[in-house]
Design a protein that fits this description.
With 106 residues, the chain is an alpha+beta fold. 42% of the residues lie in helices and 13% in strands. It is built from three helices and four strands, in the order αββαββα.
């Protein structure tokens, strides 16, 4: 940011907005998941309580995804996903999120 200034910042904000939209779209497509639209952050809180999955963190890890466990922050049944990563990595993470909460997940 210091080296490239405002043009770099604008590009970063655009990427993070695109990532936010990717995550919210994916969450809407997975039954039982919800997420509030994050503002001024690259962390998305996902409410997994509606999925019926007893341990969302374990389900994610079994699918190869490593979000932050909401229990660590006093929010059992939630996961926190960092979206500040390369776009292909986020796309793969969202595939794994779908797999984690597919019918029959633990």
């Amino acid at each position: 940011a210091w080296r490239h200034g405002d043009p770099w910042r604008r590009q970063l904000v655009a990427v993070l907005e695109r990532h936010r939209d990717m995550v919210l779209e994916a969450v809407r497509s997975i039954p039982g998941l919800t997420a509030a639209t994050p503002h001024a952050t690259y962390l998305v809180w996902i409410d997994c309580r509606g999925t019926g999955v007893a341990d969302p963190q374990a389900a994610c890890e079994a699918a190869g995804l490593g979000p932050s466990d909401g229990r660590d922050f006093g929010f059992p049944g939630f996961i926190r996903l960092n979206i500040a990563c390369p776009t292909p990595r986020l796309a793969e993470a969202l595939k794994r999120l779908r797999r984690a909460f597919a019918s029959g997940a633990p």
